[in-house]
């Protein structure tokens, strides 16, 4: 990777991915694109609606990109509320990105998700290769996307790679429209209000990961020796699996007065119930040495330290 173009650069992953890649590869070697310009962006930026195939192609060509990271997509809860729009955007945008990668011979990354599994998949230690019958539009998009990316590799030789992200937790950009967003919101509320009402029920386990580990995984996979890859789209990866009362207990270690109660959102609970409780990541470990550095306690300590500072600065 030398010159990287990113779509969805203002999203929860995209916004931090741009910063990491600019630190690692040089600011001018990373072109950030999104449908609207962010309030702050130092470095190359272009407005791009991923449904505009011609502009996507033009931007990648003018930038002389050698890598395309396609991060623009609707997340699970939003997609479930707008299924036709979600299909058109998630699949139309992905097809435009894959066609750009094919025509310009770009290395390609796009994320899949634990949402690519459904209720008929084994919940514990979900295998890399197993049944994938998701019951959400987001999951249908992710399975179709995995198959499309593998097709572009086998049919056209595009170097496509992807990971199935668990819920991602970060202290920079709030997620929008996800089922796992509760695991981010809880930290903000713990600091600002000392209380959180969880829309996900107690006992609902989901795989999760701190954003620094997610960003490292993207770069490690993209820099991995392609000859080692048996799988490509997309690798199971996770760092931890927890349910709401466990993250609340982790927060209480640092904010003893913190309290949580539950008001379950049936729509997002139904999505969460259809996903695995824990993933088997052995393929990622064997094929490109995946590892995660943050567990629940280390992440919680870092989240509370960083968010306390950020929210204090915002208030001043
Ligand atoms: C969502 N954060 O909740 C995303 C992610 C595994 C969850 O795909 O939709």
From TrEMBL:
UniProt cross-references to Gene3D superfamilies, sorted A to Z: NAD(P)-binding Rossmann-like Domain
Any one Gene Ontology molecular-function term assigned to this protein's record: L-threonine 3-dehydrogenase activity
Alphabetized SUPFAM superfamilies for the sequence: NAD(P)-binding Rossmann-fold domains
Biological processes per GO annotation: L-threonine catabolic process
Highest taxon, organism lineage: Bacteria
Domain NAD-dependent epimerase/dehydratase: 4-237
Residues spanning the membrane: none
Pfam family, one: Epimerase
Family of this protein: Belongs to the NAD(P)-dependent epimerase/dehydratase family.
Entry protein name: Nucleoside-diphosphate-sugar epimerase
Organism from which the protein derives: Kurthia zopfii
